[in-house]
Amino acid sequence: MSEITVPRGALIGAALLIGFTVTAITTSRHYDVGRLTVQTAQAGERRMLIFEPLPNGEMMVLSERRKPVAHLVIEGDTFAMAAVRALAMQRDDREFAQEFRLLVQRDGAGHVELADPDTGRTVKLQGFGQASARAFARYLDAGDGHYAPG
User: Please, which domain of life does this record's source organism belong to (predicted)?
Assistant: First the structure.
């Protein structure tokens, strides 16, 4: 049988490489090097809205004081209704809920988000285009007493 010999320098180099790797991983985790984080909108403008499904498939949008804000119709408000329903599908109580409370918020840079405070889920609306973001930004721009059909 032939004996395999590994040079001492290669063994020392491998040990140093493993030691350096373990040290680099430990240090980077401690200092959060390379960690990606997602920032949510920071209290620029925010408004809690109540989305109430209607029997015909449409939705009524109400303010926190339960004043009508808008009436979403199937033919014209497809994105807004789909976004609300997508967040509603994440809830455990969706079968029993008669309404969904969602938070519309805009950060200092003008990015609009739709958030469900009960589940912690957030949808960044800019990724769906300006028209889709404006579908919810209009609720921030409108005052409490202004009713905007469709």
Answer: Bacteria
| pTM of the complete model | 0.61
59 neighbors 84 (Cβ within 8 angstroms): yes
Report the mean per-residue pLDDT for the chain: 82
Digit-coded pLDDT (tens) for 14-57: 999 999 999 999 998 888 777 755 555 455 788 899 888 888 88
CB atoms within 10 A of CB 4: 5
Of residues 90, 86, 68, the one with CA closest to residue 78: 86
Using CA atoms, how far residue 149 sits from 26, 36, 71, 75, 77, in Å, is: 57, 41, 5, 13, 11
What are the pLDDT digits (tens) for 71-85? 888 777 788 888 888
Element (H, E) at 7: none
Contacts of 58 (CB under 8 A, 6+ apart): 71, 72, 73, 74, 81
CB 32 within 8 A of CB 26: no
